[in-house]
Specification:
Layout (H helix, E strand, L loop, with lengths): L3 H6 L8 H7 L7 E13 L23 E14 L5 E11 L2 E12 L4 E6 L5 E9 L5 E10 L3 E2 L4 E9 L4 E10 L3 E16 L13
Antiparallel strand pairs: 1-2, 1-11, 2-3, 3-4, 4-5, 5-6, 6-7, 7-8, 7-9, 9-10, 10-11
Length: 214
Amino acid sequence: MKSIYQKALGEQFYQLHPAMQKKYGITSEDNLMMLGQGRMTEIRGAHPLLRPFFLLGNFDHLVFAERGKQVPFTLENYAYRDDQGRETMSWIRRFFFPYSIRGFDAAMRFDEEKQKIIDDLGKSALLQTELDLHVTAEGGLYMESVQTSYQNKFQVPGPTTSVYEHYDEDQEAYRVHVHVEYGMLGTLLMYEGMVHTEFLPMTYKNIPERGILE
C-alpha cells in the first residue's frame, strides 16, 4: 500500500533521505504512530498589533499569537482512514509557552481527482489547502500551499504556507522550517527547530477523532 505522500510524489519519493521515506511512507496498515519531541529555536512573525486577532484561532488550533525562542514542541502523526474511508495523516502540533499551550493542527489526505495532497486545517477542518510537494537535492521535502477553500466548496484568499523538512544525520533528528505569509502583511508565523521522532505501535483505539487531540 502506498502512502499519501508516495502517491503525490511518484518516483520522486525514492529521492528522499531514507529517514524521510520511513516517516512519509507510513500508512494506516502499519499500525504505527509517530511521536516527535524537540524545541523550536524561534517562533516569530506578524506585527504585535495584529496578534490579538490570532486569539480567535486558538479555539480551532489554527493559529496562535505567542512568540518566543527555544520553545518546547511535540508532534503526533497518526495514519488512519477517515469516516469516508480515505487514507489520512494527522499532524498534531503542540507549542509549550511559559503560560499557555498552543496547537497548530491539520489532517492531510490525497485527492485522487486532483492528484494533490489536501490539508484539512484546524480541529474543524472548515478550511482546506492544496499542497505542491517537491524533493530537494538534499533528500528533504518541500511543501507549499497553492489554493485555499472553505468547506471544499468556495475558494477563499488564504495565506501561503511553506514547509521544509530534512533529516539531520549528525543529530539523528528531523529539522523543520515552517513559514506562513499573507500578501502585504508579510510573515504571519515562522518557526524552525529540530524534532527527535519515535515510531510507536498503536491500535485504532489510540486514535482521537480525526486524529486530532483536544
